[in-house]
């Protein structure tokens, strides 16, 4: 990946786009943006009114629209929006659209792993299904505030199950169906849910993943820790794995078809308080186990609605495709909730972009007349590698807008996306945000201003970014430093499930009075923001966040491993690859068999996507006299940047640096 240039060229938005979009110029944006900060109550009240978002009880207009404490020295960190309001996300995403006459419009287009498999659900059909799932969950004892774990592939039933939970006020926790049994059990043990919704299996390309087997293992691990899941609902994904090929535990397991499809298609919504928990989603941090990021009802809903409306220029009739899996936050906000709140059609794709060939995405775009396409830089770079013919043999004339998310997009990939995929007719929205932020924070508004390839440009409404120096001082003008956010925005996370103290330490202790993002950032002389990547021990592999500590503790489990240290390094397709330094126990042989075993261990413990790309059998690790591993040095060695090792004098044994360089596979 090439390094960002300092200034960056400006690419004008396609002519004619802005006049038909919600915000047609920078000046108009500026007026709206300033108001969103100066008069948040007026701004967000208008958003709710114009969008016709339904509050069963309006929030208290006599109070501030939000209140907060960002100072850990002044008591608990606390954020709250829309005081006194009552609403329901599932109602606004489904019933409200039906009441507004969109019952027969397609809500979900499902495209299967095989190009011959697709199906659609109208808003009415989706609502019926959601009610059936909700009724089943209630009959299984799920109540408001209870947690429900979901471990499913990209079938329409996955977003439907999420909507069923939010309908009855249950807190969903979707676990990406690429996670291992271990990771799934860790998450269940953390939220102590007794209900799991899953699927027999899934085909990804030609590869069959027997999800139910993984679930059996995970639930067994939970039992071993004294927690039992009482109800496991299993959807039969017939084209991947039939019932007869699945295990079934009487008394615990129930088939979806029997349990759900016999339920009534009406289910009253539970009116939730603005700040009632909505869902949790586990994400990796720099230390310890993944944390359950907790989002709440009204703020998240309004954030999801507003960002899709303005950033994706969503209009009823649009066929919007976000390639993310619902197991990640993008699949929550930009595949499920945001699009449905805007009454558009959202596409759910079960397969992979390279099956049956590298033209699959563009063949889907033509088949379903996709208007907005939102994906990750890693996918763009990977498809770029297959050559332009796979793109140009498809029409792509329906495309109006392209989006990017998950990691910095290198200018080369940006240009290819813009010129080859979009024929220069589509603005590109490079959207910076995080699981924690709930929705997009820094982004172009399509058509409203010139884009700079590699820059996420300007803050969205209500977002007040600052660039801090080492000491936590705000910097003015063109500068580089740490990205923090100054005051709350509606869709911000409110806590870490079951560990509010960890929430406070992770995000508010670094810089008192700010939410700290963990990202580095540069602001250029034109005020454009350039995200430079994580500044903590979190790595971003193919847009998936992985904590180095998690990979290290998986490697440490191997009998031959004495100590492991993991860093990210530049990878041409994945953005970052995983580089593991491993020191061995006396007598252990540093050979390929051991290498494979170590990789397998990580796959088993976390999931295939976290498998190290390189294992370096190291003679020792660079440590300070107090025993702290100096990752800065390891990062340089992994990246072959030997001339930039800077000061190594604080190491207990400075000679280790040369030994590490010499022991590297050339
Ligand atoms: C981290 C958050 C947000 C959904 C997907 C990932 C990086 C995300 C961008 C972007 C540069 C980006 C940041 C951030 N990131 N989008 N457009 N440009 N970096 O969510 O797993 O919570 O990861 O992804 O480093 O902190 P996540």
From TrEMBL:
<dbReference type="Pfam" id="PF16177">
    <property type="entry name" value="ACAS_N"/>
</dbReference>
<protein>
    <recommendedName>
        <fullName>acetate--CoA ligase</fullName>
        <ecNumber>6.2.1.1</ecNumber>
    </recommendedName>
</protein>
<dbReference type="InterPro" id="IPR042099">
    <property type="entry name" value="ANL_N_sf"/>
</dbReference>
<dbReference type="InterPro" id="IPR000873">
    <property type="entry name" value="AMP-dep_synth/lig_dom"/>
</dbReference>
<comment type="similarity">
    <text>Belongs to the ATP-dependent AMP-binding enzyme family.</text>
</comment>
<keyword id="KW-0436">Ligase</keyword>
<dbReference type="GO" id="GO:0005524">
    <property type="term" value="F:ATP binding"/>
</dbReference>
<dbReference type="Pfam" id="PF13193">
    <property type="entry name" value="AMP-binding_C"/>
</dbReference>
<dbReference type="GO" id="GO:0019427">
    <property type="term" value="P:acetyl-CoA biosynthetic process from acetate"/>
</dbReference>
<feature type="domain" description="Acetyl-coenzyme A synthetase N-terminal">
    <location>
        <begin position="29"/>
        <end position="93"/>
    </location>
</feature>
<dbReference type="InterPro" id="IPR045851">
    <property type="entry name" value="AMP-bd_C_sf"/>
</dbReference>
<dbReference type="GO" id="GO:0003987">
    <property type="term" value="F:acetate-CoA ligase activity"/>
</dbReference>
<feature type="domain" description="AMP-binding enzyme C-terminal">
    <location>
        <begin position="550"/>
        <end position="628"/>
    </location>
</feature>
<dbReference type="InterPro" id="IPR011904">
    <property type="entry name" value="Ac_CoA_lig"/>
</dbReference>
<dbReference type="InterPro" id="IPR032387">
    <property type="entry name" value="ACAS_N"/>
</dbReference>
<feature type="domain" description="AMP-dependent synthetase/ligase">
    <location>
        <begin position="100"/>
        <end position="489"/>
    </location>
</feature>
<keyword id="KW-0547">Nucleotide-binding</keyword>
<dbReference type="GO" id="GO:0016208">
    <property type="term" value="F:AMP binding"/>
</dbReference>
<keyword id="KW-0067">ATP-binding</keyword>
<dbReference type="Pfam" id="PF00501">
    <property type="entry name" value="AMP-binding"/>
</dbReference>
<dbReference type="InterPro" id="IPR025110">
    <property type="entry name" value="AMP-bd_C"/>
</dbReference>
<dbReference type="InterPro" id="IPR020845">
    <property type="entry name" value="AMP-binding_CS"/>
</dbReference>
């Amino acid at each position: 990946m090439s390094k960002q240039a300092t200034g960056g060229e400006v690419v004008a938005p396609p002519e004619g786009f802005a006049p038909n979009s919600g915000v047609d110029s920078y000046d108009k944006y500026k007026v709206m943006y300033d108001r969103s900060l100066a008069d948040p109550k007026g701004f967000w009240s208008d958003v709710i009114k114009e969008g016709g978002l339904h509050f069963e009880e309006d929030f208290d207009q006599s109070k501030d629209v939000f209140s907060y404490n960002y100072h850990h020295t002044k008591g608990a960190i606390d954020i709250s929006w829309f005081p006194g309001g009552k609403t329901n996300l599932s109602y606004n995403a489904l019933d409200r659209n039906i009441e507004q006459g969109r019952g027969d419009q397609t809500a979900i287009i499902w495209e299967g792993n095989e190009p011959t498999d697709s199906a659609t659900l109208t808003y009415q059909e989706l609502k019926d299904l959601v009610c059936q799932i909700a009724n089943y969950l209630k009959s299984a004892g799920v109540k408001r505030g209870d947690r429900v774990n979901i471990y499913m592939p990209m079938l329409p039933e996955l977003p439907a199950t999420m909507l069923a939970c939010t309908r009855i006020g249950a807190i969903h926790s979707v676990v990406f169906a690429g996670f291992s049994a271990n990771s799934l059990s860790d998450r269940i043990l953390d939220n102590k849910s007794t209900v799991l919704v899953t699927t027999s299996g899934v085909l990804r390309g030609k590869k069959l993943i027997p999800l139910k087997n993984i679930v059996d293992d995970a639930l067994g691990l939970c039992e071993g820790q004294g927690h039992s899941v009482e109800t496991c609902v299993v959807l039969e994904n017939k084209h991947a794995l039939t019932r007869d090929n699945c295990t079934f535990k009487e008394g615990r397991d129930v088939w979806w078809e029997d349990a759900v499809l016999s339920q009534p298609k009406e289910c009253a919504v539970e009116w939730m308080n603005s700040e009632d928990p909505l869902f949790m989603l586990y994400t990796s941090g720099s230390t310890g186990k993944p944390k359950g990021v907790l989002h709440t009802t009204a703020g998240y809903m309004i954030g999801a609605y507003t960002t899709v409306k303005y950033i994706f220029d969503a209009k009823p009739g649009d066929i919007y495709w976000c390639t993310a899996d619902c197991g990640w936050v993008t699949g929550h906000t930009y595949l499920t909730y945001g699009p449905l709140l805007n009454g558009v059609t959202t596409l759910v794709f079960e397969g992979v972009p390279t099956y049956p060939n590298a033209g699959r995405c563009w063949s889907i775009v033509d088949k379903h007349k996709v208007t907005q396409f939102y994906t990750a830089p890693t996918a763009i770079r990977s498809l770029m590698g297959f050559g332009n013919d796979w793109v140009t043999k498809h029409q792509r004339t329906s495309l109006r807008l392209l989006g990017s998310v998950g990691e910095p997009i290198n200018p080369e990939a940006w240009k290819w996306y813009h010129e080859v995929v979009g024929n220069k007719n589509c603005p590109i929205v490079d959207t910076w945000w995080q699981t924690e932020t709930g929705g997009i924070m820094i982004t172009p508004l399509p058509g409203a201003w010139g884009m700079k390839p590699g820059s996420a440009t300007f803050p969205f409404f209500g977002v007040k970014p600052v660039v801090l120096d080492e000491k936590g001082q705000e910097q003015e003008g063109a500068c580089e430093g740490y990205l923090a956010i100054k005051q709350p925005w509606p869709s911000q996370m409110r806590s870490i499930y079951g560990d509010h103290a960890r929430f406070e330490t992770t995000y508010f202790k670094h810089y008192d009075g700010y939410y700290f993002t963990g990202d580095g950032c540069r602001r250029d002389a034109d005020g454009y923001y350039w995200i430079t990547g994580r500044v903590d021990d979190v790595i971003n592999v193919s847009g998936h966040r992985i904590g180095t500590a998690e990979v290290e503790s998986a490697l440490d489990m191997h009998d031959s491993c004495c100590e492991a240290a993991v860093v990210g390094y530049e990878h041409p397709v994945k953005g970052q690859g995983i580089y593991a330094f491993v020191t061995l126990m006396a007598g252990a042989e540093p050979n390929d068999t051991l290498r494979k075993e170590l990789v397998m261990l990580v796959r088993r413990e976390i999931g295939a996507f976290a498998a190290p790309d390189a294992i370096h059998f190291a003679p020792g690790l660079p440590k300070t006299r107090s025993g702290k591993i100096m990752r800065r040095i390891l990062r340089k060695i992994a990246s072959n940047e030997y001339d930039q090792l800077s000061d190594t004098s604080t190491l207990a044994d400075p000679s280790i640096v040369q030994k590490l360089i010499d022991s590297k596979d050339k």
